[in-house]
Design brief:
Length: 120
């Protein structure tokens, strides 16, 4: 199986920064795409940013220019640098990975989530 463990969430003031990390471990053959999603109370989960193993990235319009996704393929780890945070960025942030797992094949894996709260 595959485990995704997120870290780096917390409470931050508007305009501040946070860096989220997500490390994948387990019976991983390879990981293609990794991404970050978020879900605010009463809202649907939405894509924040994604990155392929080759480094191609995509972002939600609401975070372009403020958030940067990156990854370390050797460590199966993805990062999300969040700058100029706004109240509306408050949400639970979830890591996602499209993995090839030994014995199971293709799996879409999710982390347990980390809370980001932007408040003054």
């Amino acid at each position: 199986q595959v485990q995704l463990v997120e870290s780096g969430g917390g409470l931050v003031q508007p305009g501040g920064s946070l860096r989220l990390s997500c490390a994948a471990s387990g019976s991983i053959f390879s990981i293609n795409r990794m991404g970050w999603y978020r879900q605010a109370p009463g809202k649907q989960r939405e894509l924040v940013a994604g990155i392929t193993s080759g480094g191609s990235t995509n972002y939600a319009d609401s975070v372009k220019g403020r958030f940067t996704i990156s990854r370390d393929n050797a460590k199966n780890t993805v990062y999300l640098q969040m700058n100029s945070l706004k109240f509306e960025d408050t949400a639970a942030y979830y890591c996602n990975a499209d993995a090839i797992v030994y014995g199971l094949g293709y799996k879409v894996c999710w982390g347990q989530g980390t809370q980001v709260t932007v408040s003054s």
